[in-house]
Amino acid sequence: MKKIYARPKYLKPVSMHYCPGCGHSIVTKLIAEIIEEMSVADITICVPPAGCAVLTYNYLDVDTTESAHGRAIAVATGIKRVLPDRLVFTYQGDGDLAAIGTAETVHAANRGERITTVFMNNAVYGMTGGQMAPTTILGQKTTTSPFGRDLVREGAPLKISEMLAVLPSTVYIERTAVNSVAGIKATKKAIKKAFKVQQDDLGFSLVEVLSPCPTNWKMTPLASCRWIDEVMAKEYPLGVIKDTTRQTHKKEAADAD
Amino acid sequence: MTKNKNKKLMRGNAVVGEAAIKAGCTCYFGYPITPQNQLPEYMSRRLVEVGGVFIQSESEISAINMALGASVAGARVMTSSSSPGISLKQEGISFLAGCELPCVIVNMARGGPGLGNISPAQSDYFQATRGGGHGDYRSLVYAPASCQELADLTMEAFDVADVYRNPVMILADGMIGQMMEPVTYDNYKPREIPPKDYILDGAKDRPSRIIKSLILNPHEMEEFNWKLARKYRIIEKNETKYEEFMMDDAKVAVIAYGTAARIAKGAVKRARNDGMRVGLIRPITLWPFPSEIIYRRAASVGLFFVFEMSAGQMVEDVRLALKGESEIYFYGRPGGIVPTPVEVQRLITRQYYQKGLI
Ligand SMILES: Cc1ncc(C[n+]2csc(CCOP(=O)(O)OP(=O)(O)O)c2C)c(N)n1
Ligand code: SF4
Question: Quick one: which atom of ligand 2 is closest to the CA of A217?
């Protein structure tokens, strides 16, 4: 009998700590699949954040180092500069990347660090119990915005991907969602492309993934998937935000002449 | 003194940079702050020459975390700053200690608290020796008192960091960082470094590795803390360094480190010229602190005269070392004041006669 579905080779055979319906488990598995398909397990170094994904090293069977909350991109920068031919990626939540680690994110992107960031946007602080994140939607209730996020009081949701897109050194930025089969496929394609951008030494690449957090949204997994379509994706439109891979390749070809 | 042909006149901050390069440091990350700016400036040129990595980071927080990353990847790495910037690095230093990663951190300290000033001060002693960051950890702290010692201790710091897989700090101040003295890099005797079998460079022909400090199980965390504590006991045993100057017959022992020790040495020489039996004990490592020798000296010394350019920080370690065996007189000048040897000698003399140590 032909096996048509199996655990990816670089996903360790353990059960995950993620809540049922959580987007983290889906994306972790996608990354394991990509590492296998691209045959890069022996050159990959993963830098997870402080956040629900802190235990990523228990799941992905590649070299992995911890990082302090918000500092994954700085740590990854140090690694990549020492080992420029390795595939180095960070995996970060929205609090990690867009609040406490904003400076690191902006400046690593602006330097065009040859790293890839998988940015998990679940509109809350998952690990610490569902507090407001910079990405929380206006009107969304969280444990620290109990009356709903208010534009005057808390400011607008931070569109960090769009902000990064204006920097000359960012090459590829795409926003996807893992609330449907099509979305999961698109996410896999995007992360794979982002890794390729790094391997081709083109510049900084980032994939923002709208990811359900049923626990802190206080919704069922199904309702969470619907909420991404009906609310989140309205605030954070899906699709390619920036892609200059062609131009970068073209420029290189021209420079080579 | 024999003339060393390899001696070069250099500024303290640049000496640290050159010593680092000569010790095999290939990465530097830092953010500008006075009075240590010549160090990143020096590294920005030298590291390019030797094919290393230099990044002027967006903050000291980023710098220490980039340094952590470079250490994860197996490189010899240094970061530097001055007091406020060192405060920002503390979380990262705690992570280095928790992940057992080597790194050399330089603090050219200045007056504080807050923005303080840019004058030489020794008010970061507590921060440097008590951890500074959170958690039950220690950093080895060197306190050089000359440009030559900056060279020797910086080079040694890289080896020590690798041997113990621990952050090592060089604690000096703007005075030592800015002054120019002739130095040689020939004193360095490289140590044997254990193989770096923990670094991350891709799991090629070996199982994948994890570097982390997160240990959720309290029993395992406790065991790890005891493991660290055992390492720190070994460091205390093997790495404590101090200098004794004219201590053989001393009735008063001045205890001072770094810039203060240079001033104190001048004061001790003057007091000796006046016929007083005064000596100097100069801690070269602040952690581990040379408690043993201080305690031993209590048998013959009548007064321990502690001099610091702070309101009184190292004096607590002297008190702990003496276990109540001897009297302590404290002279502190915080805030960036650098007293002269004459001023210090005047106080020593007064104590000497008041205590009837003649
Ligand atoms: C310096 C510091 N501050 C706060 C925390 C506590 N903390 C851990 S994870 C986290 C936020 C997690 O939210 P997010 O980054 O959005 O990731 P998620 O858990 O939602 O995946 C916080 C505030 C910490 N570990 N370190
Ligand atoms: S709290 Fe949210 S983000 Fe964290 S594991 Fe649970 S569902 Fe996932």
Answer: 2
